[in-house]
Amino acid sequence: MLEHGKIDGKQAIFLMLSVVLPTAILTIPAGIVRTARQDAWLSVMAATLAVLLIAWLVVSLSLRFPGKTLCEYAEEILGKTLGKIVCLLYIWLFFLYAGSGAVRQFSFFLVTAMMPETPIEVFSITVVAVAAYAVRNGLEVLCRFNQLFLPVTGLLAIVFFLSTIEMKPARLLPVFDAGLLPIVKGTVMPTMLMGEIVLLAMIIPYLNKPEEAQRIAILSALFNGFVLTASTLEALLIFGPDLAAHWIFPTFNAVRVISIANFLERLESVIVAFWVLGGFVKVGVFYYVAVLGSAQCLNLKDYRPLVLPVGVILVSFSSFMHGENIVDMIYYISQIQVPFMLIVFEVGIPLLLLIIALVRGKGGQSS
Amino acid sequence: MLKFIKPRRAGMMSRGKSQSRDERPTNKPDQTVTSGGSSKKQVLTPDLETNLREIKSILNNCSDVVYREFVFAQNEQLKLALIYTDGLVDNAQVSDQIMRALALEVPMSVPGQQITKARALEFIRERGLCIHQINESAQLEDIIRSILSGDTVLLVDGHATAIINKARGWEMRSITEPEAETTVRGPREAFVESLRVNTALIRRKIKSPNLKVEALRLGEVTDTDIAIIYIKGIVNEKLVAEVKSRLERIEIDGILESGYIEELIEDSPWSFFPTINHSERPDRVAAMLLEGRVAILVDGTPFVLSVPTLFVEFLQATEDYYHRFLFSSAIRLLRFLAMIITLTLPGLYIAVLAFHHELLPTALLLSIAAQHESVPYPVIIEVLLMEVTFEILREAGIRLPRPIGQAVSIVGALVIGEAAVRAGLVAAATVIVVAGTGIASFVIAYNLSASLRLLRFLIMFLSAFLGLFGLISGLAVIGIHLCTLRSFGVPYLSPLVPITGVNLTDTLIRAPWWAMFYRPRLIARQNQKRLAQGLKPSPPPSRRKG
Questions:
Q1: Cα–Cα dist B132/B121, whole Å
Q2: What is the ipTM of this complex?
Q3: Which pLDDT tens digit goes with each residue over B442-492?
Q4: From the CB of residue B476, how many other CB atoms can be counted at a distance below 10 Å?
Q5: What is the percentage of chain A residues whose pLDDT exceeds 90?
C-alpha cells in the first residue's frame, strides 16, 4: 500500500470539515442569497439532505471494495483502460481543478482582505508549499495537523456571538416570498460545495475502522450543513438579503461590524490569519488525493516523487484556470463548476460505478 | 596488546566490518565475573612476576597507578601484590581492610596454621579480606579496567586469578540543591556526577524489586558506565529493547555527558525540537519511571535522560504535582501563553507595524508611530538588532562568573535599551517587546525555549515579508513538523494530537491527583491504571447530614 498511516474516525470527520468549510463558508452565503434571497438558509438545509445522499452513495461504493481507493476500484469495475481514464478524469478535472480553485480563492481573498499590493502568486505558492510539506509526510500528519489547529478555528465560533447585537430576525421575513423554485435553485451550489466530501472515497481505505465510514460521512455532512446554515443565517440577520447578496464575502464583512468596548474591534485580520490554517488543510487534502491517485494510476511504489510536480501543476492551474479576478471566479463557480462537478463527479460517475458493479457482480460484500 | 585501549576515532570505524564488533567486549554487562571468554583474550599466568610485568607494560607511564608488593602474614614465601589507581580508592579501606588484614592480622584468626601456596587464594577470599564486595577474574582486560575504574586488584603468587576488591572512593561533589530546576516546594536534592550515587537516589524513592538497573559501558576510550533504569511491569518491554538496541549500536571514543547519547539515539536528529528530555531531579526521574518511561543515567553527569519524551513535558514542572491543582493548572496555562509569546511576539509586532496598522487602537498606533519617527530603518532591522543584542547579553550572563554575570545581564540590558531609545536607534516599544519575549522564554523548560528562540527568528523574517499571513504560514510549518515527530515511537504531541481523552488530565492543566487515573496511554501500554477510583476526599457522613 502506498500510504502506511491509519486515521481514526474523529480525525476523518475533522478532515471532512476542513475540506468543505474553509472556502464554502466564504462563498456560499452570497451565492445563495442572490438566488434564494431571505430563504437562503432553507436552501442550505435542503442541500444538507442532498449531500447525505451523495455521502451514502460514495460510502456504499467504497465499502464494496475494502482497502481500495476510488482509483483502484474504478479499474476493477470498468477494466484497466476505462478505469484509468476515469481515474485520470477525477485527478485532473476534480482533485486538481477544485484544489487549484481553493488555492486561487485563498490567494484572491488574502490579496483583497489583507495585502492588496502583493502579487497573487506569492500567496498561491506559499499556500501550496506549506501544503506540500504536509502532503509529503502523509495522510496521518495531515490529519494530526488538522486536529491540532481545528480547536483554534473553533474559537472563531465566538465571533458569531460577538456580532449578535447587530442581528435583526425581521430580516428573514417573509418566508417563501417567491415560492419554492428559488429555494430549490439555491440548493445546487451548496450541494456541490458540500459534496466535496466524495474525497472520502480516497480516504476510507486508510481508516482504522472502515466499518465506521457510513457514520463518519453522515456526521461530517450534517456538521458541515449546520455550520453553513449558521453562517448564512448570520449574514442574512446582519445585512438582510439585499446587502448580503451585494458583498462578495458576507461572512468576512460580518466580522467587521464587531466592536466591543472600543477594544475588540477590527478583528478581521486575526480571523483571516487563523482561517488561513484551514485553507492549508483544504488545499493539502485535495493535493494529497491528487498525488495519491496519480501514484496509484501510474502503479508507483511511493507517491513522494510526485509531490513537487503536482504542486507545480496546482500553482499553475490556480493562475490560469479560474479567471482573471474574484468576480470572474465566483461566476465560474456558480455557473460552470457547479453543474459540471455536481453532475459528473459527485453523483454521475459514482452512481454509474455502483450500478455497473452491481450488474457485473463486482466487489465483495454489499453493505 | 589490548585493542580497546587504542584510541580510535568513531568516524574512522567502518560499521560494515563485523570484526570491529568482536574486538569490543565492552558492551556486555558486568564483565568482572570470571567467564569463559574467547581464547584470544590475554589471561593471567600463575607467576606473579610475569603478571606484574605484563600489567606494568600495559599501564606504562601511568604514574597514578600504585603497585604495592608484600608477603602474606601466614606464609612468608607467599608473595602478594596490590595494584590500584591512586585517588580512586578509599585509602583507609585499602590499608586497613586489605593490607593490614593480610600482612598482619591473618595469624590471629588461624593461629599456628601454615597456609600453603595452593590454598592461599581460597583462604584469602574466604577469610583474609574485610572488603564488602569482591570479584575474581583471570582476564587481563577485566583487571586493567577494574584498576582504572577504582578497584583494588590483589594478585597472589602461584595463582592465575586476581581478586578484585571494590574499595572505591574518590573526591566528589556532595548532593546539593538542583541548579537548573529549582522549586519552591519539593525535594531539594539533585543528582551528582557519580553514577552509583544517582542510582541510589532513585532507589531510595522507589523501593520496588521491579525497579531494574541494567548496566552498560559505552565509549571505546573513556569506557563510561551507563545505567538503564525502568520499572518492570509498568514499562513497555519493547521500549526497553529499543533503548538497548539504540545504545548498543553506539561506537564512539568517549562519552562525557548525556548530551552525547541524546544526539546519538534521538528520533529526529535534524529537528529543532528536543525529542529526549533530561532532568537533574531524582523526584522528576522517579515520576517519569512511574509513568512507564526509561531513564538513562551516564556516569560523570548529573543530567539523566528519560524517554519517550512528549512535547507537553516541557511545559510541566515537577512542582506542578506538589502544589494544589488549581494553582498548578493556572501556572501551566501561563507557561503555554509564555511559549506562544516566546515564539510569536516579535513576529506579531513586526507584522502589525509593517502591514496591519488597523489592528492597533488609534491612540496606541499614534504613539508608536511617533516613536518610530526618529528611527531610520524598517521595523524588522530594529527588532533584529535588539533581539541579537539580547541574545548576546543572555549568553554573556551565563558564561561570566555568577556575580558579574547577573550584573551584566540586567544592567547591560537596561543601559543598552535606555541608551538605544534615547539615541533614536530603536523605538521604546521595540525594547518592551524584546524584553517581554526574553522574560517569557525563561518561563518554559530550557531546551524547549532554546529551540523556540531559534524558530522565533524564522517567524520574524516571514512576518516581515508577508505580514500575519507569513506568521501563520510559519506556525503552520512548525505545527506540521511537530505532527511528524515521534519519540521512541510515541507521537510527540500526544496526548493532545492524536487526542487521548483520559490523559488530557495532565497536559495544559493538571487535574487533581484523585482524578488522574491513568498513566500516559501510549507510553505505559500494558499497565495503565495508577490510582484507585473514588479517592476524592469528602467530609465524614455525620457532618454531611448536619
A1: 17
A2: 0.91
A3: 888 888 988 999 999 999 999 999 988 999 999 999 999 999 999 998 999
A4: 25
A5: 25
Count of structural domains, chain A: 1
On average, the pLDDT of chain A sits at 85
* Residue A17 counted as domain residue: no
Instruction: Flag whether residue A149 sits within 8 Å of chain B, measured between CB atoms.
Output: yes
Q: What is the pLDDT of residues B211-242, one digit of tens each?
A: 999 999 999 899 999 999 999 999 999 999 99
In a domain, A293, yes or no: yes
Show which of residues 6-65 on chain A sit within 8 Å of chain B, judged by CB atoms. 8, 10-11
Q: Which domain holds residue A76?
A: 23-360
Of the candidates A54, A55, A343, A39, the one whose C-alpha atom is nearest the C-alpha of residue A184 is A39
| Contact indicator for B520, B503 with CB cutoff of 8 Å | yes
Cβ atoms of A52 and A221 closer than 8 Å: yes
Domain chopping of chain B, boundaries: 31-165, 195-309, 328-490
Q: CATH number of the domain at A132, please.
A: 1.20.1740.10
Alpha helices in B105-191 (DSSP H): 106-109, 117-123, 140-149
Kindly report each contact of residues B493-499 with a partner whose C-beta sits within 8 Å and lies 24 or more positions away, as own/partner: B493/A144, B493/A148, B493/B310, B493/B311, B494/B310, B494/B520, B494/B522, B495/B310, B495/B312, B495/B520, B495/B521, B495/B522, B496/A148, B496/B311, B496/B312, B497/A144, B497/A147, B497/A148, B498/A8, B498/A11, B498/A144, B498/A147, B499/A10, B499/A147
Q: Which residue is listed with cell 579501606?
A: B93
Q: Chain A closest CA to B509's CA: distance in Å?
A: 16
Please, which residues bridge with residue B490 across strands?
A: B487
Q: What is the pLDDT of residue B444?
A: 87
Helix H or strand E encompassing B69: strand B65-72
In a domain, A18, yes or no: no
**Between residues A327 and A155, which one has the greater pLDDT?**
A327
Check if the beta carbon of residue B228 is closer than 8 Å to that of residue B240: yes
Q: Please choose, from the candidates B372, B373, B376, the residue with its C-alpha nearest in 3D space to the C-alpha of residue B349.
A: B372
- The amino acid present at A104, given as its one-letter code, is R
Closest Cβ–Cβ partner in B467, B469, B483 for A141? B483
Residues of chain B contacting residue A118, judged by C-beta atoms under 8 Å apart: 466
**Are the beta carbons of B469 and A110 separated by less than 8 Å?**
yes
pLDDT single digits (tens) A95-113? 999 899 889 888 888 888 7
Read off the pLDDT of residues B383-400 as tens digits, 9 standing for 90 and up: 998 899 888 888 887 788
Q: Test B468 with A148 for CB contact under 8 angstroms.
A: no
pLDDT at B545: 58
Q: Does A126 touch chain B (CB under 8 A)?
A: yes
* B268 contact residues in A (CB cutoff 8 A): none
Write out residues in chain B with pLDDT < 50, as ranges.
Answer: 1-39
* Each residue's pLDDT tens digit, A301-310: 899 999 999 9
Rounded Cα gap, residues B420 and B253, in angstroms: 49
Residue A64 has pLDDT above 60, yes or no: yes
Q: How far is A99 from chain B (nearest CA, A)?
A: 18
What pLDDT is attached to residue B33? 36
Which three three-digit cell numbers place residue B114? 601454615
What do you get for the CA distance between the two ends of chain A, in Å? Answer: 24
> Is position A119 within any domain?
yes
Per-residue pLDDT for A361 more than 90? no
Using alpha carbons, select from A287, A23, A14 the residue that is nearest to residue A137: A287
Q: Which residue has the cell 578497584?
A: B151
